[in-house]
Write a structure and sequence with these properties.
The longest helix has 28 residues. The chain has 110 residues and is mostly helical. The chain contains four helices and no strands. The two termini are 21 Å apart. The radius of gyration is 14 Å and the shape is elongated.
């Protein structure tokens, strides 16, 4: 990834970490915990967050200026996911990863 700026490389990595965290947490922790963790709105938000993170990373990897659009949406969805994870509780690591990704994506849209 040497052709990318350090800032973009960092954002790609943040998006991929958040993708893995949300996907893995939803499909393992949430499914096993049940209850609030598997309520449709929360579960869908986690999967949507994972998908927009993966998509944003891909847009940056293909080096299109359109990544600013996906990063803008990614930041908003990551923030929503972080708040939801915090409200449910026991998902602090996921919430923190979402916040780091949101911050990195906001920097890419500046």
């Amino acid at each position: 990834m040497h052709q990318f700026s350090a800032e973009m490389r960092s954002c790609i990595e943040a998006c991929l970490r958040c993708y893995a965290m949300c996907q893995g947490t939803a499909m393992n922790h949430c499914l096993e915990a049940g209850g609030k963790h598997t309520e449709p709105n929360h579960f869908r938000l986690m999967l949507a967050c994972a998908e927009i993170c993966r998509t944003s990373a891909n847009f940056m990897l293909i080096n299109t200026d359109l990544h600013k659009r996906t990063c803008r949406e990614c930041a908003a969805i990551c923030e929503a996911c972080a708040k939801d994870c915090e409200a449910i509780g026991g998902m602090e690591e996921c919430a923190a990863e979402c916040r780091r990704c949101a911050e990195s994506c906001r920097q890419m849209t500046a």
